[in-house]
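User: I'll paste a sequence; please echo it back and then give the predicted structure.

Assistant: Echoing your sequence first, then the prediction.
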Amino acid sequence: MRPRVKAGLLEMLPDLLEDFGGRCRKWQHATVDQAVDVVRTKTDAFHVKRLDGARQRLALCDECVAGLSGRLLLYDADEFLDLGNGGGAGIGGHNESLEIYPTLNRPSMAEHSRRGIDPPDLSEKGGLKGGEPQRSDDRLFIQLLAFGGCSNSIAIKRELDSLPMETIVYEDLNDPQGIAILALSRDPNAFVDCLRPALSQHIFGSLTYKPEFTMFGRTYSLGYEPDLNETLIERPRRTVLNPDWRWGVWYPLRRSGAFAQLPADEQRRILAEHGAIGMAFGAGDYVHDVRLACHGLDRDDNDFILGLVGKELFPLSAVVEAMRKTQQTSLYLDRLGPFFIGRKLGASPR
């Protein structure tokens, strides 16, 4: 027997993001005047939870099935909720851990007008933990600043070690007097209130700033992570500060608009091909990565920043070479780089 959803207001919450780099779908309201059946529960099935705590198994459908009055049609291509009798409403944010909350009362138009437009939910979302969905407003911000004209990188590191924020100094492989400073903090104000004044000190005065290598981004979730704090804070922090993983390759990228226009299933397939390569290199302890979103934070309007770190340099080059053959890199990137390559002098954990 197909699962049923009671009549009332279905609120599609913005709990989840698409796969790495995908768009964040908006949430909508839809009114159902009668109980509805869920169609095709074996097609791309996922679980949902109702407001009363009951769990149901729903599914995404590949195409609309006409003439099914009173049935709930969830299909990925057009994100459409069929309310029967020709009615419908857009929905979004569906994923394996999507939650649907039926409520008993729909606000009147007057109430809606008084309340105004609902603000977006900016929290990061994770999978269920202890039976409850995870939410967090905690993120790690990371900035890379590159300089030339450095004659004493040890002295630079010593100066940065006194700061109340974690930093790394890389010696630039491609510039004999080049360095890069990698700084991380949960509070973006720290980069202006702490790091900026420090870089105005006399010891940094002889350095030549290289703006083309500046990168600034934030950690983010995909929506299904089993431990949100581990994903957003602890894992990226351990990765960049690990004293054994001294080599680093950092670069920005921008996806093409054509990728965003692909069906969600096709996007997931393309990203899975790309991700499988990274997982294989990580399993061998060859390469470990940090992924940052930089929408609106990058001077060249890039979308993401990738940091590849490891014990040796060659695997970092090898993984980039392997990923050049994937559909994502070969077909759906507008630009990649510039690449900063350096070896870590040492980290200053706090």
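The radius of gyration is 24 Å. The chain has two domains: 4-121, 141-347.
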